[in-house]
Design a protein that fits this description.
By secondary structure, the protein is α/β, with parallel strands linked by helices. The chain has a domain of about 140 residues: P-loop containing nucleotide triphosphate hydrolases (Rossmann fold). Helices cover about 30% and strands about 30% of the residues. Strands 6-7-8-3-9-10 form a six-stranded mixed sheet, with helices on both faces. Strands 2-1-4-5 form a four-stranded antiparallel sheet, covered by helices on one side. Helix 5 runs parallel beside helix 6. The longest helix is centred in the last third of the chain and has 18 residues. The model has no long low-confidence stretch (mean pLDDT about 95).
């Protein structure tokens, strides 16, 4: 299992500082949700953790080594990222898309090995996509399409999975479908999952660890009931809310009713 954390991480776009001096340790084998208002730096942090965005200062560490100094293929064998709203080439089938996840493990073109075939088949099966394996990705429903992309990330065979708003533009049924799948994968495969989430109640129900971010700084982190408090919600989101216990799961539920004054 790989370990991911940051030390004194500062991130910027051109001259605009987005994240400053971030120290964040991701719990291994758990689901971590990054929450915060729009523009708080959540997606920027995720990109830096995935080695997509170069730090201005500070470091992202993967297994104790600076991630930006490691070879791309080596990182891709340990960590997979699913960005917001990915698009597949027209006509690409689910199986073809999922097979792309094996690229970091191949030494050349057309070198698909038995292990690659096994991982592709497993990823399609575990995401419930067997009936759609030969269907074009652009002909799938929103939930099916997202499951296909998750299958690709799983075929990569990494112990860490990063997802940037995996339920964006999905209806409630498809949101639940995707989040339950991710939680199942975490519980059954012990994968470390880090996801940017907008819905606080989704974070509370499906995450073990929640990190509340404002202007690139961690305001609070911990178990859902430690983060879902009146004080944190007011400070991070600028809202007043009732916080009640879910009668089925016992996790806190946020019901916003007013902007903070």
């Amino acid at each position: 299992m790989s370990h991911l954390y940051t030390e004194s991480l500062s991130l910027a776009y051109v001259d605009r500082l987005i994240v400053e001096e971030l120290n964040l340790k991701i719990p291994e084998g758990k689901v971590t949700a990054l929450v915060g208002a729009n523009g708080s730096g959540k997606s920027t942090i995720l990109k830096a953790m995935a080695r997509i965005l170069q730090p201005k200062t500070g470091t992202v560490y993967l297994d104790g080594k600076a991630i930006h100094k490691q070879a791309t293929k080596k990182v891709a064998q340990q960590l997979a990222i699913l960005p917001q709203n990915p698009e597949a080439p027209a006509g690409l089938t689910v199986t073809e898309l999922v097979s792309y996840g094996r690229f970091p493990h191949q030494k050349g073109f057309n070198t698909v090995k038995e292990e690659d075939r096994r991982m592709i088949s497993w990823a399609i099966t575990v995401t419930g996509m067997n009936d759609f394996a030969e269907r074009a990705v652009d002909n799938l429903s929103g939930g099916q399409r997202q499951r296909a992309w998750i299958a690709m990330a799983l075929a990569q065979g990494t112990s860490i999975l990063l997802l940037d708003e995996p339920t964006t533009f999905l209806d409630m049924a498809h949101q639940l479908e995707v989040l339950k799948l991710l939680k199942k994968l975490n519980e059954e495969e012990s994968r470390t999952i880090i996801m940017v989430v907008h819905d606080l109640n989704h974070a509370s129900r499906f995450a073990d660890h929640v990190v509340a971010i404002k202007k690139g700084k961690v305001i609070e982190e911990g178990a859902p009931d430690e983060v879902m408090t009146h004080e944190v919600l007011s400070k991070v989101f600028g809202i007043e809310a009732d916080i009640i216990s879910d009668p089925r799961t016992g996790v806190p539920i946020c019901i916003p009713y007013e902007l903070s004054r």
